[in-house]
Amino acid sequence: MRRDFEPDERDFLTEIDASLKDVRAVAGPCPHPDLVMAAAADVQTESSASILEHVKACPVCQQLIGDFSEYEHPPVSEEEDRRIRARWERPNLSLTTPARQRMRLPYVIGAAAALVLVAAGLFLVLRQGGAPQNLPSTTAGNKGGSEPPPTVQPAKARTAFVLSKAAIKVPASAVLTLRSGSNDERAFLDQFASALAPYRSDDFAEAARRLEQLAAKYPESTPVQYYLGVSRLFLNQNSEALESLETAGRLAADDLRDDVTWYLALALDRAGRLDDARREVGTLCSRSGEFQKQACTALEELK
Amino acid sequence: METFERTYRKYRDIVMRFAIRCIGRRDVAEELTAEAFLELHRHWQEIDIDRLPSWLFTVVKNRAADHLRRADLERRYLSTEPFQLSSSPNDSHGGLFNHAALKPVHRICLTLRYVHGMTLDEIAVRLGISDVQVKGHLQYGRELLRKHLSGKAR
Fold first, then answer.
1. Quick check: A84 contacting B, CB < 8 Å?
2. Is A31–B41 a contact, with Cβ atoms under 8 angstroms apart?
3. What do you get for the CA distance between the two ends of chain B, in Å?
4. Which of A214, B34, B103, B134 has the fewest CB atoms inside 10 Å of its own CB, making it the most exposed?
5. Rounded to whole angstroms, how far apart are CA atoms B2 and A264?
6. How do residues A191-239 score in pLDDT, each as one tens digit?
7. Three-state secondary structure of B33-75
8. How far is CA B126 from the centre of its chain?
């Protein structure tokens, strides 16, 4: 019995227990209601045929399906509407629309012109000989003085980009390249589960070792590259982590997209590629999802 | 000429309802609805308007299947709990919650709670109502069924 049942509910369960027992043998155990609803709506999954078989014999599931279709669901709320719209109204996606592309053109031209001016200015200064006179004293040790010094940013307290362990997920797309139900699929999932066992217990060195072997065997696997990248972040192997996460980012389907984007942003931040990190968290911040809040905080911190 | 905004307003609610029917959960249904309209937005220039809303329904169905496969894989291979299709106390109870005074919302709450063992929050998210409302529906349902059962016993 579930712990969150109140005493009155426990009594109620006892009261209906006899009736429950009377009918338990009719159709066997009921599948999860999400799967029942999906099967009834003709959503094709591996288990939909067996679920429909069960439903035929199960008055409980039949009643549930009927009740769900009769139930008047509340209309889409303003909050839901806002979140739905955010999916295509976010800036990076709308760049694909012709109108936005036209709006963006002047900015691109402006940026290109600014680059040309900067390059021409630098060329003239160097041609006149020696390092530019107005560089700060930190360039004193910069041999040749031909490169501007790295900008020294005042240290900001960062709270959003704290590395935390990625939840374990295996999306359906993880096995899309393998034949469904085949030995290959089973072998991959078994090896992947084994590689994630040390990750579960925070042994990131062993997890990275096993995931590297798996990545060599399945180079196109998003979750393998993703968890390898996260493990490497924990090991402070930042450039290797970035490499894995960039690969995962290229391969990621929708189901792991946000997760990969978040850790990729973190790796980019560690690599000092702040513009790229900003772009990634900006994308996450503008769409609803589990990373939205922390991405928006990170975006603020990166400004 | 039909604009994307007008099309979205026209079909938003029916796509959401269809998504809820496909998946049984309002929170996931919202995600599926958003995905369907995002796809429509991406293909807006080439889409044949006459194919709506069935085109949107197909996207929802495909995404629902993806979601369930993912959830299924997670349960089977990575959950600390063994994979099961059912939750306790399950099994069929053949019309146990059938009573003329019960509405679909009461029966859904009773079934999800006492057959599938869901929490109030889990039920609330599926129905798009608050957990307080779920609690109220359950109390009403229990009282009514108790009266019914005790009347039968007499």
1. yes
2. no
3. 68
4. B103
5. 39
6. 888 888 778 766 777 888 889 988 998 888 888 999 999 988 888 788 8
7. HHHHHHHHHHCCCCCCHHHCCHHHHHHHHHHHHHHHHHHHHHH
8. 5
